[in-house]
Fold:
Amino acid sequence: MITEEPLTTEENLPENKVKQYRERGFVAIQGIISKERAARYREAALELAARRRSSFDRKVFTQLVNAWRESEPLKELTLDPNVASVAETLAGGPLRLWHDQVLIKNPKNSAPTEFHQDQPYWPHANSVRPISAWVALCDVPVERGCMTFIPGSQQRTGLAAQDLTDAGSLMSLSPDLRWEERITVPLKAGDCTFHHGRTAHMATPNFTDDPRVAHVVIFIDAGTTYRKKPHVVTDSLDLEDGAPLDGELFPRVPVRPE
Ligand code: SIN
Ligand code: NI
Structure:
């Protein structure tokens, strides 16, 4: 019988992980879900990619936004109470779901995801502690496309949206970031990183023969309101500027069993 390390939960989350997250803007967590569940969700992600096979295929990665609306297994992961309650503890305030996305780097894809912050892409106001869980659905060593972060970069506010296909994009907006320390975080299946929406991050290329499959669950402050600008999640919703982001697309989390 293979015995697994116990999961990391809200109850056993070490205090120093919270401190690390608040200071550096990211943290690695072992065993946010079991390896058995990671393998199941990996299959579901690949199945959804085959079903959607569409304009979302890009050079850097295949991106499947709002996977939870179309895949029951991925819905279970996106609304997983353990992922959300650890996110809430790290963020330090009430959260709701913004969206999820499966990100697949195809085998032998030499394109990195270049440095960027996430928050400048989003049509949000009143969101001070957005937090993303990047869950590894397969083993992700450095050569398969793991994340690299610049500690403390969540303090950089007000930057324009950056181009994640251009290595110079973020660095031209904030040149001193070039000289900051970078931390690269390989993950095993079932592990995750959490990062703040403004923490600068990139992912290495996938030089291996297997797809790199990650599922990212993005949470925002429960009181986030809509700030009008184009975004694939909100474009079809016809929201007024200043409207609360709520309703069934943006549920409050963690969803506790009744
Ligand atoms: C990636 O997984 O390639 C990038 C993830 C991100 O930008 O959040
Ligand atoms: Ni990102």
Notes: DSSP finds five helices and 13 strands in the chain. The pocket of nickel (II) ion (ligand 2) is lined by residues 116, 118, 201 (CB under 6 Å). The mean pLDDT is 95. The domain at 26-236 is CATH 2.60.120.620 (Jelly Rolls).
